[in-house]
Amino acid sequence: MTGIDESPERAHRFSGDTDVGLPNPARLYDYWLGGSANFAVDRELGDHIAESEPRIANMARENRSLLRRMVTHCCRQGVDQFLDLGSGVPTIGNVHEIAHRHAPDSRVVYVDNEPVAVSHSELLLEGVDRATILRGDLTDPAEVLNSPITRGMLDLNRPVAVSLLCVLQYFPDTDRLRETVASYRAGLAPGSYIAISHLTTDDGDVNASGVAERIRSSRADHQAYPRDLEEVLSLFEGTRLVEPGVRYAQHWHHGEIAGPTEPSGIYAGLAQVPE
Ligand SMILES: C[S@@+](CC[C@H](N)C(=O)[O-])C[C@H]1O[C@@H](n2cnc3c(N)ncnc32)[C@H](O)[C@@H]1O
């Protein structure tokens, strides 16, 4: 797989003010998914992590399949507004593409703080009326929910599906994460959905601790903090989990016939904001 041409000019155009010398989760994930929005440092760490867990690319693919199933489920429940937090570099099956297939009037706000992810999203969304990207920090729910970009696209008085897929694992403090999720919940209309997927060491088929350890011992601009079932369940406090509850990503299905799956090492759940 090749990445972004690393000439300084082109690197700057795509990276804005990010430090391209440090591996970053958006670009690492893009690399594992076969994208080209990544730099040599990302690819080096990506390969180093893959030595400890060779299924890492499958794990990323399972997470993208999960995203498709969760968005589809929300669409079938009549939800037509989406807020994708930590949306990443656009890849196959982005939220607006899935949602627009079900309801062309659906509206989508992507949020990411990584400049390469944001600039690639801007390019993809040129000419798309009902989807936009906010460069912002998802750990500041007030800023995200009150941003004119969010307010211009979404009506928060109606249900919104908020996704936090494979992103909360980058934050060490579970209590603060619970507060963050609770603040989003408080800002959403009843009937809204919150989707979470999260790296875990509970899944014995996957070496998630090896993945976290290789990130920890690298120069990456982030760390990974896998969580156990109890911690992941606690993030859903104050919401109502929908069937099938919290499962490994590859087992989170809702009525569809499951195809062949790979171990993911990722917990997944979708919950509804009650009245
Ligand atoms: C592993 S990727 C997941 C992408 C996508 N959610 C998915 O599941 O396919 C994690 C993303 O979260 C973003 N991210 C990390 N910390 C963030 C923060 N504080 N605010 C916004 N985005 C963040 C990263 O830049 C990256 O794009």
TrEMBL record:
<dbReference type="GO" id="GO:0008168">
    <property type="term" value="F:methyltransferase activity"/>
</dbReference>
<dbReference type="GO" id="GO:0032259">
    <property type="term" value="P:methylation"/>
</dbReference>
<protein>
    <submittedName>
        <fullName>S-adenosyl methyltransferase</fullName>
    </submittedName>
</protein>
<dbReference type="Pfam" id="PF04672">
    <property type="entry name" value="Methyltransf_19"/>
</dbReference>
<keyword id="KW-0489">Methyltransferase</keyword>
<dbReference type="InterPro" id="IPR029063">
    <property type="entry name" value="SAM-dependent_MTases_sf"/>
</dbReference>
<keyword id="KW-0808">Transferase</keyword>
<dbReference type="InterPro" id="IPR006764">
    <property type="entry name" value="SAM_dep_MeTrfase_SAV2177_type"/>
</dbReference>
